[in-house]
Design brief:
Strand 1 and strand 2 form a beta hairpin. The protein has a three-stranded antiparallel sheet, with helices on one face. By secondary structure, it is mainly α. The protein has two domains: about 110 residues, no CATH class; about 180 residues, hpI Integrase, Chain A (Orthogonal Bundle). About 50% of the residues lie in helices and about 5% in strands. The protein is built from twelve helices and five strands.
Length: about 375
């Protein structure tokens, strides 16, 4: 595990930290037991590396143990980060974002350090009590399924498949997306769609099986064209490269974002936006919150309202609005079937009316004939 640019004492402590995370040792008692997933470890490593470089540069420390005497300095540093005065390690050197996430990682690391030291008989002060781990709700670019189809008209087969898959599944990207293999798909020959299994070990919350009702045809053609085998990953491009391509594509087709330079697009779309827009698409098509939560891997209903509030739907959406758990084509077919049943019943009633009319005429004729045959009294 490489940590370029960090001092040896910091690297040594980080390796102890990640060794514990790999087996689930010294973790928060309120957290899930067991080892942390590969995706979680990879994300944590990148952010801890960034944080430690910032601590070295901004606080002038050579070891992480020195942070115990830097409680106020850390508060000032996080304030500086929120003001956009601390730059990322990426080549574009943009200000760090999602500072609340970095604060939570600082807290998690320091609490691990406190527990590890306590086992060695050392009491360490909690320097993270006053740190604020909240983040502003991130802004996202909203687009519809029709917008996605417009972008698909300008995209390569790979990106066309990717965009339709993202919008259809609402899958977390890149963590769940990058772990989808061909054998995670099961084809339903009767209904012509795939069922996707998102495995427990690759999910942030829980594994699940969902129907792919929008992208199955495109996805199947792509898999066959690329000659992908059962154990092959379907999407393999790096998230950074994918985001760059999506930003350029959305700017060219939908005029989302702002061009800054020849290649860089600010405030454009990203993988993250597809999950948001997918949630907004599927929200009115499900008849229950539990079904929608299952599809998106959410444990709390607040996540639904979080997404809908961003579209100004907070005051209008109700449980009654979540009324469809099937595709539009299925609903139209049901309506057509019901219409045919009604027409059949009407035809049957019409025939019954004709029969009744004939019976009534026959009875009237019999009554007249009976009356004609009755002898008159003299």
């Amino acid at each position: 595990m490489q940590f370029d640019g960090l001092s040896e004492p910091i690297v040594a402590l980080l390796r102890r930290y990640f060794a514990d995370m790999e087996v689930g040792a010294n973790i928060n008692p309120a957290s899930r037991r067991g080892a942390r997933s590969y995706g979680r470890m990879r994300n944590l490593k990148g952010k801890m590396h960034t944080l430690c470089l910032i601590f070295q540069d901004e606080l002038g420390i050579a070891t992480l143990e020195e942070l115990e005497c830097k409680e106020r300095e850390i508060l000032l540093l996080t304030k500086k980060m929120r003001e956009g005065k601390v730059l990322s390690r990426k080549s574009d050197r943009m200000p760090l974002t999602a500072i609340g996430t970095y604060v939570k990682i600082i807290k998690a690391f320091w609490h691990w350090y406190m527990r590890a030291q306590r086992k060695e008989g050392k009491n360490i002060n909690d320097i993270t009590i006053d740190l604020d781990g909240r983040d502003e709700k991130p802004k996202f670019s909203y687009f519809t399924i029709d917008d996605v189809k417009m972008m698909c008209d300008w995209a390569t087969p790979e990106y066309k498949t990717l965009m339709m898959f993202l919008f259809d599944s609402g899958i977390r990207a890149p963590t769940e997306l990058m772990n989808v293999r061909v054998n995670d798909l099961e084809w339903d020959a009767k209904n012509n769609y795939y069922t996707l299994s998102i495995r427990e070990e690759t999910s942030k919350t829980f594994g699940r099986r969902i129907k792919l009702l929008l992208c199955s045809g495109i996805l199947r053609g792509y898999i066959e064209t690329m000659g992908l085998k059962n154990n092959d990953y379907i999407f393999t491009r790096t998230p950074q490269r994918v985001n760059q391509q999506l930003k350029r594509l959305a700017y060219r087709v939908l005029k989302i974002g702002k061009q800054n330079g020849k290649q860089h697009i600010e405030n454009g779309i990203s993988l993250y936006d597809f999950r948001h827009c997918s949630a907004c698409y599927w929200l009115p098509r499900y008849k229950s919150e539990s079904a929608l939560k299952y599809r998106f891997g959410w444990k709390r209903s607040e996540m639904i309202h979080y997404y809908t509030e961003l579209l100004g739907m907070k005051d209008t959406i109700t449980d009654e609005d979540l009324y469809v758990d099937i595709t539009k084509s299925d609903l139209e077919k049901q309506i057509q079937d019901k219409g045919e049943e009604i027409e059949l019943l009407q035809e049957q009633m019409k025939k019954q009316d004709e029969v009744m009319t004939k019976i009534m005429k026959t009875m009237e004729a019999l009554q007249l004939e009976k009356g004609a045959q009755t002898p008159t009294q003299s």
